[in-house]
Amino acid sequence: MASYRARLTKYVILQLVGAIAIIFWLTPLYAMLIDGFKTNFEATVTSVFLPPVRPTLSAYIAVWNSMKLPLINSLIVTVPVTMLSGVLGTMGAYFFYVLGEKHPIVGNTGFSVISLATFLPVESVFLPLYRFEYASHMVNTYWGLMFAYLLFYIPTAALLMSIFMPVVPRYLIEAARIDEADHWTIFWKVVFPLIVPGFLSTLIFVFVMSWNNFFLPLTLTTTPSMRMVPVEERYFTGGYGTLYNETYAAAVLASIVPLAVFIVLGRYFIRGLAALGGGAKGV
């Protein structure tokens, strides 16, 4: 009986903690959503948590007309960047995973140097990056943005996938080698199917990071037609005043895409995290 009460108490506590966490997570989204339906005067003088007296779509319509092109620009850049970063980063993680078997010092050192890009502030390497893109005529182009993003997010994806890579049993790789399979076949036929949840988790992380990146599109684009969502958002806060209802609406529209991605692929993200604690069986 005492054991049952202890389990019940633990279950109730966990549910309460989960409910509190969900409330804290949803509160800003709720405030942004409802305040986008207010007039600017109402959004200014009323609490952010009070629903609008007379809901209006004027703020969302105005913001949508302004953010359509930035949304398209962000999708054009971030989707290929996410896929390329995920695939190339996974290949890099596999290469160093295999290299570490025979040459652990070389493998660990090389991987550490490459992964250093994950921890470097973008600003610290911006000047040589900008000069290179300017000389290559890539400033203010989709290709220039993709190139800059890939420089940072391929190492990020490789670092994340190196965490998931050890869930692949080494005896499977050895068995494939005995069957004379090359590395390309081993990677796609043996390794990749086992790390799909980790791969999807990495894609989600890289997509959200690239979608929310502000510094690179701010400095590598110079015309309104090339603005991306994070840069466009700042223009709703003026130097002499702020249209609060449109600011809230812009924040909601900017969050829809990454939020939708996480909702659709969220279960795979959880499976990927669970795989870390469960070895190959967790995958």
Any overview of this molecule?
With 283 residues, the chain is mainly alpha-helical. The protein has a single domain, classed as MetI-like fold, CATH 1.10.3720. It contains twelve helices and no strands. It has helices at residues 2-35, 40-45, 58-102, 104-119, 126-135, 142-164, 170-178, 183-194, 196-212, 215-220, 229-234, 244-282. Helix 3 crosses helix 6, helix 3 crosses helix 9 and helix 4 (104-119) crosses helix 6. The longest helix has 45 residues, at 58-102. It is flat, with a radius of gyration of 23 Å. The protein starts with a helix and ends with a helix. Residues 279-283 have low confidence and may be disordered.
Give the CATH architecture: Orthogonal Bundle
How is the CATH topology named? MetI-like fold
Structural class: mainly alpha
Please provide the count of β strands: 0
**Mind telling me the CATH superfamily name?**
MetI-like
- Kindly, what is the distance between the CA atoms of the first and last residues, rounded to a whole number of angstroms? 36 Å
Short description:
The protein is 79% helix and 0% strand. With 283 residues, it is mainly α.
